[in-house]
Amino acid sequence: MNSANDFKLLMSHWADIMEANRNYLIQLDSVVGDGDLGLTMSDGFRAASDAIARQDQEDIGKLAYLAGKAMSTAVPSTMGTLMASGLMAAGKAVVGHKALDLEGVTAFFQGFCQGVMERGKAQPGEKTFLDGMAPAVESLRKDCKTGASLKNAALGAARCAHEGFLATRGMPAKHGRAAGRGEGSRDTLDPGAAVADFLMKGYAEFMMESGANEI
User: How far is CA 57 from CA 33, 96, 113, in A?
Assistant: First the structure.
């Protein structure tokens, strides 16, 4: 991610993905929640993207923090607050950076994951967003140590996020309305983990298709 403009383009791509998958997220969430996740994510990421699109700011960390603040105002629901917290924590993790190499990208997504974890008081393995994001972060950490390219690391992280999402079928839910179903929650896919899947898929698509160059 070579510039703040790249981050703005990524945020716009994430907003497009959430809009394109709005009905799918509504469908998943209607099984275990109140069915508004698709609206929350499409509205929230669009608000976050719009808020930074016109910002004359070169610091990627500050842009991410501003995006999170905008999302927290636009969609003050449980998941909206979690994603806003993730963005703000990611911003704090890379504040001062005008470009992100693989180490910076890893810090960004690790900060996102940590922000959601702390806000939601959850851990991986409890059938939440973290079960999609945590495997992606671990993949990025490993690739960072081995010196993988940004694009290959992005593809690996997306693959791990998708596998993590699919693995939520079989887990009992520990949080939210789904937890009230007890063992009956095992047969469902977690909609929060689907959001993580879309975020990492979107990041990989951005790296492969948008012309973003290696640093």
Answer: 38, 11, 24
Torsion of CA 145, 152, 102, 6, to 10 degrees: 180
Dihedral in degrees, nearest 10, Cα atoms 48, 36, 114, 122: 170
| pLDDT tens readout for residues 49-83 | 999 999 999 999 999 999 999 999 999 999 999 99
Q: What's this model's pTM, rounded to 2 decimal places?
A: 0.93
Q: Are 14 and 172 in contact (CB under 8 A)?
A: no
Residue 59 DSSP SS3: coil
Domains of the chain from N-terminus onward: 4-209 (1.25.40.340)
Q: What tokens were used for 153? A: 């690391």
* Three-state secondary structure call for residue 123: coil
Which distant-in-sequence residues (6+ apart) come within 8 Å of 142 by Cβ? Answer: none
